[in-house]
Each structure stands twice: as structure tokens, then as C-alpha cells.
Amino acid sequence: xxxxxxxxxxxxxxxxxxxxxxxxxxxxxxxxxxxxxxxxxxxxxxxxxxxxxxxxxxxxxxxxxxxxxxxxxxxxxxxxxxxxxxxxxxxxxxxxxxxxxxxxxxxxxxxxxxxxxxxxxxxxxxxxxxxxxxxxxxxxxxxxxxxxxxxxxxxxxxxxxxxxxxxxxxxxxxxxxxxxxxxxxxxxxxxxxxxxxxxxxxxxxxxxxxxxxxxxxxxxxxxxxxxxxxxxxxxxxxxxxxxxxxxxxxxxxxxxxxxxxxxxxxxxxxxxxxxxxxxxxxxxxxxxxxxxxxxxxxxxxxxxxxxxxxxxxxxxxxxxxxxxxxxxxxxxxxxxxxxxxxxxxxxxxxxxxxxxxxxxxxxxxxxxxxxxxxxxxxxxxxxxxxxxxxxxxxxxxxxxxxxxxxxxxxxxxxxxxxxxxxxxxxxxxxxxxxxxxxxxxxxxxxxxxxxxxxxxxxxxxxxxxxxxxxxxxxxxxxxxxxxxxxxxxxxxxxxxxxxxxxxxxxxxxxxxxxxxxxxxxxxxxxxxxxxxxxxxxxxxxxxxxxxxxxxxxxxxxxxxxxxxxxxxxxxxxxxxxxxxxxxxxxxxxxxxxxxxxxxxxxxxxxxxxxxxxxxxxxxxxxxxxxxxxxxxxxxxxxxxxxxxxxxxxxxxxxxxxxxxxxxxxxxxxxxxxxxxxxxxxxxxxxxxxxxxxxxxxxxxxxxxxxxxxxxxxxxxxxxxxxxxxxxxxxxxxxxxxxxxxxxxxxxxxxxxxxxxxxxxxxxxxxxxxxxxxxxxxxxxxxxxxxxxxxxxxxxxxxxxxxxxxxxxxxxxxxxxxxxxxxxxxxxxxxxxx
Length: 833
Prior knowledge:
The structure is a single chain. By secondary structure, the chain is an alpha+beta fold. The protein folds into four domains: 2-474, no CATH class; 477-515, no CATH class; 559-667, no CATH class; 678-831, Galactose-binding domain-like (Jelly Rolls). Helices cover 50% and strands 15% of the residues. Strands 8, 10, 11, 13, 16 and 20 form a six-stranded antiparallel beta sheet that branches. α1 (2-29) crosses α2 (35-61), α7 (161-175) crosses α8 and α14 packs parallel to α16. The protein is globular. The model is unreliable at 106-122, 325-330, 462-484, 487-493 and 507-515 (pLDDT under 50).
């Protein structure tokens, strides 16, 4: 219940500070929007402006200040309130949405107050919009509730990037800038927009940055869905576009993998679509500055969103140069100049801030080419097949053609991942690193818009092109023929009136087309797509619920890691440094004044000085004096890491606290006389009925150090029994010891751990209520040198036996349809205390 209240409070506060600026922008860029569409568009644009103003404030002022941010938000809301008030009081009476639609059709009509709301054009669009809006609000609300499920089911976010986001946001709160904490000297270079918004809301609510950032990112995804639906409502395909958003799973997978700034940066596409996906003649003078503000806001959230908006500009420019010649050249020239200025500014900003640091780096492809199999996987075969079958439905419209050009440009830029190994092209390096996972988030939005156009009603966006065709037909045609109502398909007939021309073109475009097989099969294709969408949503919801018993495999840090880090931070005195491995599971997600031997990685790090590498070398060499030289006094080790093996073998490290396997150690001034622990990998393993060797779930995040507790491959079993031996050295002869087995287990499993030597046999029974990295131990008296025979019986007794493992799609696991079971990691024998 506490988490649920925090979610409502965070979303409520964010909406309160962002909704008025969002509505003011909507009133400018889409003056025909009614209350329904305005509420769809405003939240996403408001969050975009919130991140944009915060990001540029830090860049310009050089520091983050809560008070300054509060004043900026207050000023932004005052300006928005003034704009909204001015737009309402300038007219004799406030026009209805359909009156504003007609009012906005031309610059000459913009000064009129009264409109003929019985115009057939207005009535047709009103009916079309009402049809497409059926159940959309309920579906959008349902989508938002589904997006909140992970926040309630899991204790912490899954994935690892959020550790870095939280660390930088905490530093903004503490010192006002993204400087590395002591004892390191340097700074993170990362777009600050999302991080500043997270820091501000965290300070306002007095909550940890990681939980606020988690909620804010899911709220941004919700706003993105609503904004795309609202934008598509302009050409009458709101419901169909919502179907298109749900078919591909890419952006949802990126959100799941904690790509929070990447997802938030996609909000910039909403105003870009509203402004650009319209006839050039319909552009207003206020659209250009709003578009510049959009581009600037996206640029300080994440470069991927800025790249997509820039490609949309290019797609629109390409299409603008190919429109019929009766369009005004001045409008075309103004758009090209705006696009050029915006793109040059972004290029200079990127080259000046980021690209020089990548000059010596080679182009990499972390997850392979994103425009091939990865794109097919995350966009989905149904979505791709639908677009390929009915692509002509979209190509014959302005909106569809621009979107298809946009999709093609995004695909073309993915080819940068094929240039692996190129050096000296720093701008290519920047694009490569910005779009390393673009298969997840690059193609879903244009694909959703195309599906919406294809599955929607063509008349809704035929109007966009129809006006140009009518203009070309009526104004430019030199022949003078009479309109024959008995033969409307005669191409040699010249209509006398606009209404006759409109009827003629509509009949030529649509009634003749109805005889084609695509039109006949289109309702059936739509039905198949909707059925598949419902099936996919059901599978996805079930998959998320089934993951509950296996979250330890996916979470970067679990409760035991967090508790151990917090304990060490509370025990360390001023000036004492805590040794950690530097991996994602060894960074405290909450604010702390303690000094750590490593810092979280995020973006580009400008490092002046850091003892991290020297501390790691001293630990590997067993050089205690070298560690003391860097004021190392404590250490925290995780089950999934390598440091425990090197610390446990040195008696000068005293075990202070154990959190089910995650340990806190104190470095002593002198070596005590008692023997050190023996940590060994399990090499000889007998399984009944069977075991399989799997890749360690976090092997790709582990360093290249080969720990004595085993490598990157471990044994996995679902049920049955496992037998192995635990080595005992001479130092433990006839002494009481603690024998431990370290595991990664699913929830709902009963374990029976037995150790035997001679006539002594001890058994312990453990119930694994939840998924966790843990250890099970037995106190064994007067052990003899040699080995202890151990066995483990696994009895699944609850939980979910089958589940979909998202690590399988990212390559971190060999299995997608996974099972309930456990990983047998390593053993330990240490002196009983």
C-alpha cells in the first residue's frame, strides 16, 4: 500500500507541475484540439518541458539548485497560464472544437469568429473521430495500470542502468553537479534532463532518487502512449494507432531494462508529429519556435530521441520538395531553413560536447546490427506483415508517406552498426553508442503510426492530400469541361464547383479502390491483428506475474546487497574507504556520505584521478599494505561477484556481518592466528536425474577476473538431488566449522542440505520463499582433514514452474522459456565462531 501511495503521489506531483505548460503548447500547435485530445497530448509535452528546462538550467548555470528549479517551473507555469488565458479572452465567445477546426484551415480564416459548423467537411471529420475514439480512454487507462504493475510486483527495478542514474541524481542533490564522489576526481558526462527532473521530484517528496526515477519513467511511457494516440486523433486513427503501439514490444522492453532517459526522450516525438505531419500550408508562425524548444528539450534528455526527431525533420523535408508545384515556395523554403538550422545546431552541440572524447575509440556494435533480426524481434512479425501487405494505404497520404520515409531513414542509420572497428570518425562513434539498442525503441513509433493509418479509415487522412489534388485539379487544369453527374469517373470532366471536385476525387480514390482484394480483406486483417494484440497482452501480463518467483536472476541488486552496503556505510568512519567490486550489484542505490573504492559507470566519464584500478590490483595480489595506503578499512562482497574469494582466503579480513551470503568485512591491522576460509568451485557434481551447465546470469556484467569460486559457467538443476564434496584443509583438523553452499534459487523450493563425514551426518531443511542469491549452512563439529560428502535435495513446492525469461532475448541466458530451479555456485568451509 505504501508503494501504491508513493506512485500516486509522484505521478500527481509531476502532473501538477507539468500539465499547464503542456496544455499551453497544445493550444498553440493544435488549436483545433478539443478537451479530449488536449488531455491526451498535454502530459507528455509537459514532462518533456520539465526535463528540458531542468537540463538546460544545469548546462547554462553549471549547477543544479532546487530553489532555482522551483522558480523556473513556477515561471514556466505562469507563462503557460498567461497564454491559455490570452487565447480564451481574445475572441467574443470561445469557439467549439469543430469551429476551431474550420477556423484553422487557412490564415485568412484565422481572424474570423463565427464558422458554419454544418459544413460537410467538419461533420465528416467529427463522425470519423467519434468512431475512432470508442473505448480509447478506457484502453489508455488500462495501459497505464499495466505499466504500473512492475512497480508493485518487484522490490527494485530490473536491469542495471538505473544504478548509474540514481548515483548521478544523488550527486546533483548533494553537490549540484555530476562530479564523482571522493576519493575519485572526475565527472560523468550524460544528458542531465531526466536526471534533474528526478532529483527535483525526489527532493520535493523526500524520497530516494531510484524509486522516483522508476515511477517517473513509467509515467513518461504512459504519457508517450497517450500523446501518440492524441496526435493520431488529428487524422482520425486514435484507436488504430493504440493497437499499433501495443503490437511491437520494443519500447516496453527498453523500459523494463531501465532505459529511462531513452524512453523519456521519445516524448519529443509527440509535438514533432503534431507540427510536421501536416500540410506545409497549415503551418503557423508559432510552430517554428515550439519546434525549436522541442528539439532543445529532447537534446538534454537522451541523444536517441534527438536523432529520431532530426530524422523526422529530414523525412518531412524530403517529402516537402516532392509535393505538387502549387504549394507556396516561401513555406517550403522556411521549413528547409528551420530544419537546416536545427540539425546544424544539434550537430555542433554533439561534436563539441561528446564526440571529441570518442575520437580514439572504434565503432562498436554491443548488441549487433539493430536493423535486422533485432528489429524483426521487437517490432514483431504481425506488425511488419501488416505494413508490408497494406503499405499502399499509407503511401497515398502525406502523413503516411512522411512516416514511411522516417522509418526508412531510421533503418538506414542502423547501418552504422555494420562499421565495427572504424576509428577516427568520432561522430559515428557517438551515433553508435547512442543507438546501441535502437532495435528496441527506434522503429516502434513509426510502425505504430503506420499500422494506425493502415487499419483506420482512409477518408480521415485522405483529406490531407485531397486538398492538394483538388487545388491541382481546379486551378491548374487548362481544359474546360462540364461536370457530368452520370459519369463521375470520366477523367476528361472538369468540375464546376469545389463540392463537385471533392465528390469526384473521393469517388475516384475510394470507390474504385473498394473492388481490390486489399479493401475486401482489410476488415479481416484488422480482426486478426486485434485478436493477436489481445493474445499478446495476455501473454505479456502473465509473463510479468510469473517472473515474481525468479526476479533475483534479473535484478542488478537485491535486498541482501542493499542491506550489506547500508551497514558498511553506517560503520565506516570519516576518511575510511569501503572496498567494492565496481559492478552494478555493489553500488548503494540510496544516498550515502561514505567513500567507495569504485563508482557507477554511466555515459562518458571524464576521469582525472581514481584509485580504483590500484585498489583492485592490491586486492588480487594480497597486498594489504597497498590497500591501507588508500585508506581501505571495509569491504562488501556479493555472492555473484569475485571479491569474496580473494578476501576470504586472507585472515586479516574479519567477517563482521553476513546478509544471507552478502558479507561485510573489516580489515584488521594484524593477521590473527586462526585459519582462513576455504572457498572452492564445485567441480565434481553428480545429479539425479540431471543437471545442465549454463552461463552465469550476470556473466556479461562480470569483470575478466577469474575468481577461485568458479568461472562464468555454473550448474543448474530443476529438481532431484545433487551430490558433491567439500574440501577440508589441515588447518581445520578436529575443529568446529561452518559448511556453506551458495546458490541462486527461484522461489517456492524446499531444500534439504546434508553433510556427512565418518559417522557424523547433519541435515538442515530450508524453505526458499522467494527468489534470491543466498547461502545455506551447516555447523559441523570436529571435522577431519580430507573432504565432507554433501548432498542437496531439491523439491519444488509452489511457485511457477514455467516462465518467460527476458534475459534469453538479450543473450544473457540461453533459455527464453525457463523453468523453476536453482544454480549451484560454490562451497565454503570456515572456522565456527
